[in-house]
Design goal:
The strands form two sheets. An eight-stranded parallel β-barrel has the order 1-2-3-4-5-6-7-8, surrounded by four helices. It has 18 helices and 14 strands. The longest helix is centred in the middle third of the chain and has 26 residues. The protein is globular. The protein is of the alpha/beta class.
Length: 538
């Protein structure tokens, strides 16, 4: 893989840059990732820009033979912007404003935040877009991280506009949400609240359809903001690739990757894990979004098994691998780092410096691939079904944990990739497709699954398949593929009829056309999954 590392020139004295760059280059690293949190240094006061230090740091890097991935610094609005326009700050579910002093203290619905952040993005693009040393761009940092949802006034106004565009009339919204329940009927869109915490003496929660609409709106707000940044960059960067760094679902999967990366050129991700199956899952998940090689934007330099983990990701389609980070932070919330970086605080090589150098020396002839090979098994990941289970009070399931630590773990083999699928179009000539916990009905997916099995595919789904519609409302009619594909012809959903869990977790096994399909329990264990998968692949 092409190796890179995160570096923060604004943290160092300029005379240290060439010293650090030389050591980075001598480790065989060819790219640095910079400026992701530097807004206040680049624009210390409203409209006053200081480019000199960034100009010089890029030139010093180029002089040492390093290429630059330049990041937009929009995840950390500076104090002057917050003071001038307080609506930049988001509001949490309990109604408290997220104050200045950490990061991601921004509302994607605030016009002031969007306008000011787009100004610095555009100015960076104008200045560095065609710079020969700047070879790629990273948008922001970990969209949907610390701030996933905003319950402020800017968000409320934008949410009302989203509802009007989505439903057309408030009467249609009332019908689809079933607001006849508890007399929740609305007469105007501007009457609809955000699903904030309800402080009642007895625990109470919001309408699950309202929660789902807000989850979709929140994801789309981030997606649209990322697209806006990419559109601002494109006229100036001469076709250089644009990515952003997503993060592990254990910290939330509130942003739909299939939409976030749809307008970008390459999938980027940050991984911090010592579990091989988890590392492999995210490699497969990244490759699956655009069905081509991906970049690892952050990976802990101090891992005890760094080389084997790098190989695991390379085998799953990673073409550029960025270590985090060149040096520990002496200050701030991440001071010390918690594990070794490439260099120590004093700038000396760390324990893994030699490991990285040995790796790069063995791969001097690496050619970056442009295509990724399809895998024989597909695993379908559905963000909105995950949100539905997160929202549910009576039937809460940690969707991402089950997908990674149970289903994918049962599939894991370090020598075998799995295609993580996100849309019906992603289902191809796979020998086996697994669709766990896909709670929300999707007509296009139902049709594609039927075609897939009929033409010879093997399908395993959990018994909650298509129990709800896209508004997070339970269906009152069993979908057609239950009978045709799975051989379930009762006028009831599976677990409403069969109350005792069968041995092995398998409820139905049915041949349809040239293929075969199984319904299995939602709580199917790793061992039960492994047994059924082995059978399905025969």
């Amino acid at each position: 893989m092409i190796l890179g590392v995160a570096y923060y020139p604004e943290h160092e004295q300029p005379e240290h840059w060439p010293i650090d760059y030389k050591k980075i280059k001598e480790a065989g690293i060819t790219q640095i990732r910079i400026a992701e949190f530097a807004w206040a240094v680049l624009e210390p006061r409203d409209g006053e820009f200081d480019w000199e230090w960034l100009d010089r740091s890029i030139e010093e890097a180029a002089a040492c033979g390093l290429e630059v991935v330049l990041c937009t610094p929009t995840a950390c609005p500076p104090i002057w912007l917050v003071e001038k326009h307080p609506d930049v700050l988001p509001v949490n579910r309990s109604g408290a404003t997220v104050r200045f002093g950490a990061r991601q203290h921004r509302s994607y619905s605030s016009k002031h935040y969007v306008d000011y952040s787009m100004r610095i993005v555009t100015k960076m693009a104008e200045r560095y877009g065609s710079h020969p040393a700047v070879v790629a761009w990273q948008l922001d940092n970990e969209f949907g991280g610390e701030t996933k949802f905003d319950f402020g006034e800017c968000s409320l106004e934008a949410f009302h506009a989203y509802l009007a565009e989505t439903y057309g009339t408030v009467e249609e919204l009332n019908r689809r949400w079933g607001t006849v329940f508890w007399s929740q009927r609305y007469e105007r869109f501007d009457q609809i609240p955000l699903p904030a915490k309800i402080d009642a003496d007895v625990t109470m929660w919001q309408n699950p359809s309202l929660e789902m609409a807000f989850a979709k709106f929140s994801s789309l707000s981030i997606v649209n903001y990322a697209r806006k940044q990419a559109e601002a960059l494109r006229p100036f960067i001469d076709g250089r690739p644009i990515t952003t760094n997503a993060f592990m679902f254990r910290w939330g999967d509130s942003v739909d990757w299939s939409k976030l990366f749809d307008g970008l050129d390459v999938v980027g991700m940050d991984i911090y894990s010592d579990k091989p199956h988890e590392i492999a899952f995210y490699g497969d998940a990244c490759r699956g979004v655009l069905q081509r090689p991906f970049w690892m934007m952050e990976y802990g330099t101090g891992s005890r098994n760094l080389i084997s983990e790098m190989e695991l990701l390379k085998d799953r389609g990673c073409s550029r691998f960025f270590l985090f980070k060149a040096k520990p932070f002496p200050w701030g919330q991440e001071q010390g780092g918690g594990h070794p970086e490439l260099l120590t605080l004093t700038g000396e090589p760390s324990a893994n410096y030699g490991v990285v150098r040995d790796y790069t020396e063995r791969h001097l002839d690496y050619i970056e691939p442009t295509e990724a090979q399809a895998a024989p098994i597909g695993l379908y990941y559905h963000f909105e079904s995950s949100w539905s289970y997160r929202i549910s009070v009576s039937d809460h399931i940690a969707y991402a944990d089950y997908m990674v630590d149970t289903v994918y773990r049962s599939l894991y083999d370090e020598t075998r990739s799995v295609d993580v699928l996100y849309t019906p179009e992603h289902i191809g000539d796979h020998k086996l497709v697994i669709v766990p916990l896909h709670l929300l009905h999707d007509a296009a997916l139902e049709q594609r699954l039927s075609e897939y099995v009929q033409s010879g595919g093997r399908l395993i789904a959990t018994t909650d398949l298509f129990r709800k519609n896209g508004d997070n409302v339970f269906l009152t009619q069993v979908p057609e593929l239950y009978g045709s594909v799975f051989g379930w012809n009762a006028n009831n959903f599976v677990t409403d009829s069969i109350r005792v869990r069968p041995s092995g977790g398998v409820y139905t096994e049915n041949r349809y056309g040239e293929g075969k399909a199984w319904f299995v329990a939602r709580d199917t264990s790793v061992e039960e999954w492994q047994a059924l998968i082995a059978k399905a692949l025969l």
